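Z., the sequence and structure:
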Amino acid sequence: MAVNCDENKKVREIFDAAIKLESEIENDSNSSSSISHQEKTTRCIQMLEDVTRMISELGLFSTNEDVDEVITSDLRYFLLPALLGYLTLRRIESLVSRLDLLKIADVYYKDFLTRCQDYKIAKVEAKEKDDSDACTNSTDLAQMTRRREQKIQRFREQKANEVRLAELSKLVESEHSDEEVRREFYLVTIKRWISTALEDLDSIHMEKGMLEQMADSRLNQSNVKAPDKPRPCLEPLKPIIITRDKVQAAVFGAGYPGLPTYSVEEFVQQRYGDMQIDA
């Protein structure tokens, strides 16, 4: 699909500002529950969701491509669902349950891993786990041993990627960096986030299990209890993922009820003004 260069540049500027803000969040010395930290997290999520919607509208990705067909400057957008999964896990919302946030992060990370698999960036999969994972026989023990070996291998790959990223970051910052260096930088960054996604998915599975058990326990308690306090009627949180589906991809119209329909350029102007983006 032909893409308006100005629109693509504006989307890139918003994405880069979000990346800068995410780095500030990751290195923030304040408590993750502090107002300032949560405000930054919410702002960064909003920016990344905006970019996701605009990427869908611009049609930068296709399901019948592999990574070699994606231009270097667009590789960064593979990170969108991974970043949104990471930040969603770090949200603290009084009106949204922790379990709902875990489910949303789970969708984001699995979308990210599926896209990486589809584009042949890496062989990854995020299988659903169940309570039968418990070690009850030799087969289960072999599975646990294999998972442990996979985690060790993943850890080694993560460390190697971090070392290479440190080297590439210096080269990318140079005015004379070539496309090959920039391409490797993005691909290694994506692989680093694959490791993060797999680790976080393991944590999500464990935490979801504990929360669901706690919920079941509360339901099984005495039938005589005080009536629940009424909760505000809120539209449920939904993950925003890159899609080529025209119903969802109609920018901020059908598929995103309650929001007016804009072109990408009109939306950027309405949301970000003259692009003096301050993360």
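Confidence is low (pLDDT under 50) at residues 131-135, 246-260. The CA atoms of residues 219 and 227 lie 13 Å apart.

Let me know what you think.
H.
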